[in-house]
Amino acid sequence: MSNRIEYWFDYVSPYAYLTTQVIEELAAKYGREIEWKPMLLGVVFKTTNSSPLTMRPPIMANYHQHDMERSARFAGLPFVLPEPFPINTQNTARVCLWMKEVAPQRVGEFTRGVTKAYFSGPAGLNDIAWLAEYVSQMGLDGTAAAAACKDERYKAQLAAACEEAVSKGVFGAPWVIVDGEPFWGNDRLPQLEKWLATGGF
């Protein structure tokens, strides 16, 4: 049994935002570590012929927005659906990949912080200057973080991560894989915790 939990997410996902705030603490409670796996839902959706929840027919989109707001209240977290929404998050994901190399112990802090800023709004998620300033305020090298956004190495890593996600059957976010078992959605956290507590069911 691996000690690591794969956590697949996109910074633009409202439900991943909610999971991101608690996933690292939950893993630590059961002696596990999070392997942060940023990916792009846009790439996944092209493969699965799907679309963002808020861009589906109005009867569905309206419900999903209401559910996002209710789910955030239930979790005790602020939530404002950003404008515009959704956005591409490739720069934020590349900064995450850079941080996994230079300060792996700070990835959770970064991910929780930028998603909370974005969904508390307004915040320049994916804006290179905004990301550089945010990283600088963390006491890390904001200039290097900005450079990572345009670095071909991190572009290639992100593309490979998206391909890996699809190969593992990921079709949404948040997506958690523990002991080979996949859990999709913030609403699966109770099942995830039971799995961690019991070793499977």
UniProtKB/TrEMBL annotation:
<dbReference type="GO" id="GO:0004364">
    <property type="term" value="F:glutathione transferase activity"/>
</dbReference>
<dbReference type="InterPro" id="IPR051924">
    <property type="entry name" value="GST_Kappa/NadH"/>
</dbReference>
<protein>
    <recommendedName>
        <fullName>2-hydroxychromene-2-carboxylate isomerase</fullName>
        <ecNumber>5.99.1.4</ecNumber>
    </recommendedName>
</protein>
<feature type="active site" description="Nucleophile">
    <location>
        <position position="13"/>
    </location>
</feature>
<dbReference type="GO" id="GO:0004602">
    <property type="term" value="F:glutathione peroxidase activity"/>
</dbReference>
<dbReference type="InterPro" id="IPR014440">
    <property type="entry name" value="HCCAis_GSTk"/>
</dbReference>
<dbReference type="GO" id="GO:0006749">
    <property type="term" value="P:glutathione metabolic process"/>
</dbReference>
<comment type="similarity">
    <text>Belongs to the GST superfamily. NadH family.</text>
</comment>
<feature type="domain" description="DSBA-like thioredoxin">
    <location>
        <begin position="5"/>
        <end position="196"/>
    </location>
</feature>
<dbReference type="InterPro" id="IPR036249">
    <property type="entry name" value="Thioredoxin-like_sf"/>
</dbReference>
<dbReference type="GO" id="GO:1901170">
    <property type="term" value="P:naphthalene catabolic process"/>
</dbReference>
<dbReference type="InterPro" id="IPR001853">
    <property type="entry name" value="DSBA-like_thioredoxin_dom"/>
</dbReference>
<dbReference type="InterPro" id="IPR044087">
    <property type="entry name" value="NahD-like"/>
</dbReference>
<dbReference type="GO" id="GO:0018845">
    <property type="term" value="F:2-hydroxychromene-2-carboxylate isomerase activity"/>
</dbReference>
<keyword id="KW-0413">Isomerase</keyword>
<dbReference type="Pfam" id="PF01323">
    <property type="entry name" value="DSBA"/>
</dbReference>
